[in-house]
Amino acid sequence: MLRYNHLKQIDIQDITVFLILMKFQSAKRTAEELNVSQSTISYCLKKLRFCFDDILFVPNDNGMLPTIKSQSILPYMQLALDSINQCTEVNDNIFNPPKIWCISAPEYFELSILPSILKILNAENSNTSLQIQKLGQDLPLEQLFIGDIDIGFGFGPGYHRLHPNLQWESIVNDDFYCLTTYRQENNNMMDIDYFCKSPHVFPTPWQSDENMIDGWLKRMGRNRRILTSANSYQACINIITQVPATLSIPKKLVPFLNIPDGVDILSPPLGFPNFTLDMIWAKSRTKSPAVMELRKIISQLNTRL
Fold first, then answer.
1. CATH number of 99-173+276-303: 2.40.50.140, 3.40.190.10, 3.20.20.70, 2.30.40.10?
2. So what's the architecture of 176-273 in CATH?
3. A Gene Ontology molecular-function term (predicted)?
């Protein structure tokens, strides 16, 4: 509530005129700056002088000099205008509240899909943050059911056992390349004997002691020697540049990694497994905003995956 009724006459234009007059100390310059007539400036100044019971600006040959009263009220007038401008930012936050989407996913998702999701959110000026939890040996069922994790991304078909109360959708089909510095005569494809003979670097894109490649070898009565494991695909590539070894890597990740000269990119042995990347969520949360929005974004990306 205003302390004095006559202050009700002041509007935002009057405050703006006062601040511009303080800056230029010229009615003409102020009118040009605000794209209004000088008579409008005179009218606003008349109201301000009445409300504050002070001449505020003294005309002289050099322009309009502010009085002591003008200099005293300047910070308060500036604060009033800044506060009004701040109201628009508060309204933006009300209509665009911050959101956090929680995702459980392997490194495959982080390299190939996450950047595109963030690009879409940025283009939409979305006030959304993504929290990524590394996929474990098993899907985080309880967290999916209670909503601590909105969506999980896991490998299929059948590499992660699905609960009957989960819904899933395959979003990527992929095969493998063999990246190797373990030389062989055939430069296009590794045969099974050479594959098993080569030392291997094993990436652990999700926390598990088992993987689809060793399962495939075991079914054929074969095995390979794991030289070491590493927590990322790029770390594995860096290792095989230093020691002769082989890395089996999803084809669609190759463009996202730094593969130096001297590393051969070969087709794997015949019959090598392929896989899908599956999007997984709790059936009870199908209509939740986070799940619906994430699925919508993934559907936009499907033509590029």
1. 3.40.190.10
2. 3-Layer(aba) Sandwich (3.40)
3. DNA-binding transcription factor activity
CATH 3.40.190.10 domain locations along the chain: 99-173+276-303, 176-273
Q: Where are the alpha helices (DSSP H) in the chain?
A: 12-24, 27-34, 38-52, 68-95, 107-112, 114-123, 141-146, 192-197, 212-219, 233-240, 289-301
Q: Is 248 helix (H, G, I), strand (E, B) or coil?
A: strand
pLDDT in tens, 23-70: 999 989 988 988 989 899 899 999 889 888 899 999 888 888 999 998
Binning pLDDT at 50, 70 and 90, where does residue 161 land? low
Within 13 Å and on the Cβ side, how many CA atoms surround 77? 24
| Token reading at 176 | 């493998």
Q: Name the DSSP class of 189.
A: B
Q: What angle do CA 260, 266, 270 make, to 5 degrees?
A: 160
pTM of the complete model beyond 0.70:
no
Residue 21 CA to residue 17 CA, distance in Å, equals 6
